[in-house]
Structure to design on (88 residues):
């Protein structure tokens, strides 16, 4: 039987270089933040990631908008769903 699963967008908290919270960002907001960081070539911004393995792990966003790590569960639902669709 087919059912519609309600999936809430995953959000993680973003911080500026002075450790001020920028709020809880969904994937699209997170990517927008990364684009702005790259455009302005600023540094010190980071996300806090928590799951069963990592507690308060800082994921730094480099000046080029790339992250210094990408743990499982960090904005990866879309990729996980695509893998299921194509059978990987």
């Amino acid at each position: 039987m087919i059912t519609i699963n309600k999936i809430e967008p995953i959000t993680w908290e973003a911080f500026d270089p002075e450790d001020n919270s920028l709020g809880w960002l969904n994937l699209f907001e997170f990517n927008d933040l990364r684009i702005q960081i790259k455009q302005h070539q600023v540094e010190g911004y980071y996300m806090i990631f928590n799951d069963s393995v990592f507690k308060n792990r800082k994921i730094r966003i480099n000046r080029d908008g790339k992250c210094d790590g990408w743990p499982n569960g960090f904005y990866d639902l879309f990729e996980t769903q695509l893998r299921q669709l194509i059978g990987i």
In short: Residues 12-86 form one domain. Helices lie at 27-40, 77-86.
